[in-house]
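Researcher: Let's try something more involved. This one mixes different molecule types, so please make sure each is placed in the same coordinate frame as the others.
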Amino acid sequence: MHEENSGIRPGEVAVELPPAFDAQVYFIGRILTPWTRRDDCPKNARESDAECIVEVDPRFAVGLTGIETCTHVLVLYWMDQARRDLVLQAPRHYAEPRGTFALRSPVRPNPIAASVVRLRKVDGTRLTVIGLDCLNGTPLLDLKPYFASTDAVPDAVVGWHKSRGDSSLP
Amino acid sequence: MHEENSGIRPGEVAVELPPAFDAQVYFIGRILTPWTRRDDCPKNARESDAECIVEVDPRFAVGLTGIETCTHVLVLYWMDQARRDLVLQAPRHYAEPRGTFALRSPVRPNPIAASVVRLRKVDGTRLTVIGLDCLNGTPLLDLKPYFASTDAVPDAVVGWHKSRGDSSLP
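Model: All components are placed in one shared frame. Result:
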């Protein structure tokens, strides 16, 4: 069983999830990475310059028209091995628990990850990218052009993280 | 009927969507904005400094612990009024059609929007933010801390957009 399914650590809090879902998603492709176990994944994407492949379902091939002109792409994907009911989490390398919405942990009500990647090559429906840290085979939800004008905020601060005095990511 | 459901423009291409969905999401709150019709929404979020309210379901209140230390937050929300089957789109203000994955249009297989907002205030489960451009009542999917170290790429370029020589967003 996957690590995130295996229980609750001291200080963590789970809630009862809503009785029903509200909407549905398609997996529109898969992400191919070198990492097959959670422990192998880089702690954060900046630690790795590994090339990964984003493989889009041929059904949606035409949707890629023009993406080759983007230097960076926002990748949304589904972290399908994570539990969804924790609101307070205590990652092993942190001293105190934090709220799910103050963390980038895969454990969240909707396990949707958002990662900015450098786009190196587009070959049909296969995109070669740098900047992912997910498991091999992770389901793809969406690709979006990254607009520096609205997406880049270089002076943004995460206060609780800054005060920790290191640069690892949640 | 909503604009995005009303038909296909010349040059646009629709595909048959997959026969089944693959996963499900919860709406974990709502976004309150001043805009009740698509035409009222700002063309892009940088055009507006309107304060909007992100209201999180009380069930998930504890998940907000620590978010008040963030200057910026990544908001994921569900654009529930958009059709999902277009792969080539011709927004009215553009000369030629472009691929869905090269656009930030709400029309996409999974209508999940990602917006970076400035966090002004946290009052219980109500967050006051600046930087949204969506319709009032839009369902909320997720909130994440915005880390400049991985999320900010100020020199990113969207080639097709740059060559248009203006600054409006798709």
